[in-house]
Write a sequence for this structure.
């Protein structure tokens, strides 16, 4: 089965370094289309976090966000443009993060 996460070059490197099984496991256990209840509880008790995003060309951006616990508004109604991104417009105006 072809992975939507890793392209052929990534797979070649994983095979070379014998890390394909690790990459597959990370994909299975850390990637999802929506936050879980555990994610929500974690986010709401944090005083800070780093918001990392990548645009459609793969260019990354990472920024610090901080405040009192609960400063992140959490909504279960947020919609995203793809199953691997979650909209966080209230944190990073107009941004989409995954």
């Amino acid at each position: 089965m072809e992975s939507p996460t890793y392209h052929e070059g990534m797979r070649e490197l994983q095979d070379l370094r014998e890390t394909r099984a690790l990459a597959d496991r990370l994909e299975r256990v850390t990637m999802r289309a929506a936050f879980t209840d555990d994610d929500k509880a974690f986010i709401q008790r944090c005083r800070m976090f780093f918001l990392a995003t990548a645009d459609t060309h793969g260019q990354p951006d990472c920024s610090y966000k901080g405040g009192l616990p609960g400063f992140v508004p959490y909504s279960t109604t947020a919609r995203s443009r793809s199953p691997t991104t979650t909209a966080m417009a209230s944190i990073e105006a107009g941004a989409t993060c995954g």
